[in-house]
Amino acid sequence: MSRTRVLTLLLAVCLIIAYAYTGYTYSQERQKQRTISEQINNVSGALALVPRPAPDLQQRLAEARKLSTSTGEAVFPGSINTTTYINHILSLADESQMKVTLLTTDPWEERKVDERTFRIFRISLQIEGAPESLTDFIRQAEEEMPSLVVDSLNVERSHDPANSVLAGTLELVIYTLPVEKK
Questions:
Q1: Domains present along the chain, CATH in parentheses
Q2: Backbone angles phi, psi at 26, to 5 degrees
Q3: β-pair partners for 120
Q4: Distance (Å, rounded) from C-alpha 57 to C-alpha 65?
Q5: What φ, ψ does residue 109 adopt, rounded to 5°?
Q6: What is the three-class DSSP state of 36?
């Protein structure tokens, strides 16, 4: 065969391979496009089933925020007498038959919760007592002081099986109203 014929044949084979590759790639892209179109249609159908928000939604949200703030003011005191709180905690411990062997406090600090900043006061108690006494003490403290939160509790049971006593550390945090930015 002549050289031109070989080159022409080689060029024709290359063109056929290029056309085949282009056709294959095109069919793959079409398949992807069909799949995406089906997904869009399915999501559009699902979105059509979602009810539209109430026209007064923004107003209702604003009212809920106001209610939440007024509820927060009822739960979180603006300022507290820490001595009164500590004395109340100690009297609750005594009523619950929990022995407080050591009480320490940390200075006031600020803690950010969501988008609000609260002033907090930490109280750390070394405690001893029966498991029922501990649960009774924590329940009473949380019921009577809604702004008090148990931050951590680390206790160990005594090694004497006849005497079920817990000993450990109870970390309490008292929250006050958020600090307003001026």
A1: 80-178 (3.30.70.60)
A2: -60, -45
A3: 109, 175
A4: 12
A5: -145, 170
A6: helix
